[in-house]
Amino acid sequence: MMATSLSSSEIVGLAERVDRAQQASQPITKLTDEFPAMNIADGYAVQLELRRRKLARGERSVGWKAGVTSRAKMVQVGVHAPTVGFLTNTMARPESSAVRTDDLVHPRVECEIAFVTRQALRGAHCTREQVLAATDFVLPALEVIDSRYAGFKFDMPSVIADNCSAARYVTGGWPRSPLDVDLHALGVVFEKNGEAEGLAASAAVLGHPADAVAMLVAVLTELGEELPAGSVVLSGGITEAVVVQAGDHVSARFQHLGSVSAKFV
Ligand code: OOG
Ligand code: MG
């Protein structure tokens, strides 16, 4: 990875700023407004410092998420390359649960395929086949993203520093071996309040959701991390993210994997 432009005290300060915005559910201006020279390495340095702070407070690492891995998402947010963020236990919500909105800034929901691994993955050249072989099962998932930036407006270094907008995620459906379902061509129906919001195929995610996981492993390797066995990996929104507010109910129905739903309160 390229060199950081920020000093280590700036990195710590920005991680604190993002952390506070998250805890107060108060939007902040994107970090590059103040630090225009911020690059991707700076973004990940801030994100890893944010992760270190959360783990030091007792949150447990449960896995990672790939972001901006489909055309629909790239067009929606104006970021044109995939990114990764981390997941902790405090972000997980059970199927059908009520997700609070008062502790979020401006949530949006995405439907994704979650991978759960049974072998560690590492390396700059991780392949789709290695990902499939190391996967225990896949599940349908909803990711609730929540940019801490005003207007949900950001650029790549800023969104990476903000942990790729990670906020909550819900898994549901049936665990299936990735070898038993054609992950490349799964249809998904995404509904909000009973109305179709999006119809898509899983192939929208970098051609294949396992390729998104392989990309994530390559980024983690660059960051000096690996993907441990037992990790949850969200492979990226298949459709555009949909704005939600208290009172909304969303569900994603995946061919062969069942459905996952949540309501917002
Ligand atoms: C960045 C996170 C994107 C996905 O699945 O593409 C993401 C954002 O859009 O705020 O989680
Ligand atoms: Mg996502």
UniProtKB/TrEMBL annotation:
GO MF, one example: 4-oxalocrotonate decarboxylase activity
Positions of the Fumarylacetoacetase-like C-terminal domain: 89-264
UniProt enzyme class: lyase
Transmembrane segments: none
Source species, domain of life: Bacteria
EC identifiers of the protein: 4.1.1.77
Key words, A-Z: Lyase
Matching InterPro entries: 4-oxalocrotonate_decarboxylase (IPR017630), Fumarylacetoacetase-like_C (IPR011234), Fumarylacetoacetase_C_sf (IPR036663), Hydratase-Decarb/MhpD_sf (IPR050772)
Alphabetized PANTHER family for the sequence: 2-KETO-4-PENTENOATE HYDRATASE, ACID HYDRATASE
Descriptive protein name: 2-oxo-3-hexenedioate decarboxylase
Organism: Hydrogenophaga laconesensis
